[in-house]
Amino acid sequence: MLTADSGSVLRLVEIEGRGRALVASQPLKAGQIVLQDSPIVVYSAFPLVKPQSSASYCDNCFRILSSSANVVPCPLCSHHLFCGPNCLTAATASSHSPWVCQALSRLRDCPSLFSQPLEQQVQARFLIAAYNLALVSPSDFQVLLSLQGQYFPSDAPAAEFLHSLISSVCPPPSLSISIELTAALLAKDKLNAFGLMEPISLQQDGERSVRAYGIYPKASFFNHDCLPNACRFDYLDSAPDQNTNMIVRMIHDVPVGREICLSYFPVNLNYSARQKRLAEDYGFTCNCDRCKVEANWSDNEADVIDDNGTVEENENEEIMEEDNDEQMVASEGDEVGEADFPHAYFFVRYMCNRENCWGTLAPLPPSNDVQSKILECNVCGNLKSEEDMYCRAHLVDFEKISTGVIGQYRRPPPDGHLLSTFRGNNIQGALTSMIEYSKSNIA
């Protein structure tokens, strides 16, 4: 499966306790593209009847629709819009076939579906897309079936309801479906679907919504790490073509044989919120190096998780020990060695400091084997110079602050101890306050 697009830079292996994984088959450089993948299934993340306040997207490529006269409606229904004749033609032959159009219209008129949670309307969209894939591309459907899926007894009611509904209201032509197949597909969607996000300009209170979900067969082999060494980029509204493709780039250098991991969610989430999401959405507990460190913090903290996954800090938190360092290979030219790489350094160097962004920074792809000095945020798209980020990181004297040595400072650090602040996961506030403090107070 990992052949054409990925070249020979990644190798699919089995890792005990982690299952299938992707490892570097050669030394990889920061910014290097290690995978480009196209989705075999893409479907809308909105309920069948979208809220009037929501933005409109092309039902084929999922670009945001403008008020342009190029917008074309589906000729068979009034519910689906396309950004132009080309997308309409492509969708009619694939994702929005006549059967899909008819099936979604029938489901939209089905009262029993609207008495269920909104999530089941989105699951119904996925099942229609998956069954349609079996009709228009049997080989891709087999790829979908080959992906990992984990079925939980708690998922049975939704699977039974949706199977009964689709079988009676809009059964796919010339395709025999069973409750076992429906349940298996829903399990694979839950573990493998990537969210295609709305533009950051549309976010409210720091929360971005998903515009669509896509299943990427090669990218599905990336395991999770709470301090990833690679991150995904998509260019839904800016790429001239193949805009739903996923591009995975290295955040920093890694040696041959190292597992390449993504973070399944923004890196700013605290330990409890990360573990809760991983258990509920993916069925596993994370034991990465960061979690091993932060698990010890959780044993003594009385933090309250809010709806955004961040915490309200306990004012009486104790100062953490200095030896909770994260091991990471430093990029060429970095003055910080592997053994000295502080746990908090990742957030200063590789997390976007734009308000409410929480994106991850990776260098632009190398040009003529020369590493780029410009880092790109995978959420807001902002570009930052490596020099700025490097200076920003080194303005914070981690060693002095983490050991509690404040004799060289004219006043105590704001909000107490740096690691204590990171422990509370007010990461962006910690970065801002500590950098401003370091600028004016380090002797």
Task: Describe the structure using short key phrases.
443 residues; alpha+beta; 3-stranded antiparallel β-sheet; 14 helices; globular; SET_dom; SET domain-containing protein; ASHR2-like
Please give a structural write-up.
It holds the Pfam family SET. With 443 residues, the protein is an alpha+beta fold. Among the domains are: 41-197, no CATH class; 311-441, no CATH class. Helices cover 33% and strands 14% of the residues. It contains 14 helices and 17 strands. The protein has helices at residues 85-92, 98-108, 111-114, 118-136, 138-146, 156-169, 179-192, 271-282, 289-300, 345-350, 386-395, 398-402, 418-423, 427-441; strands spanning 10-15, 19-24, 33-37, 41-44, 72-73, 81-82, 193-197, 210-215, 223-224, 230-233, 246-250, 261-262, 304-305, 311-312, 361-363, 374-377, 383-385. A three-stranded antiparallel beta sheet has the order 3-11-10, with no helix packed on it. Strands 4-8-7 form a three-stranded antiparallel beta sheet. It starts with 9 loop residues before the first strand and ends with a helix.
Structural class by helix and strand composition: alpha+beta
**Based on CA inertia axes, which overall geometry fits?**
globular
- Per DSSP, the total helix count is 14
What gap, in angstroms, lies between the N and C termini?
A: 56 Å
Specify the biggest β-sheet: 3 strands, antiparallel
Poorly predicted parts:
298-342, 398-425
Q: What fraction of the residues are assigned to beta strands by DSSP?
A: 5-15%
Number of strands: 17
Helix content: 25-40%
The radius of gyration computed from the alpha-carbon positions, rounded to a whole number of angstroms, is 24 Å
Largest beta sheet: strand ordering: 3-11-10
Rounded average pLDDT: 81
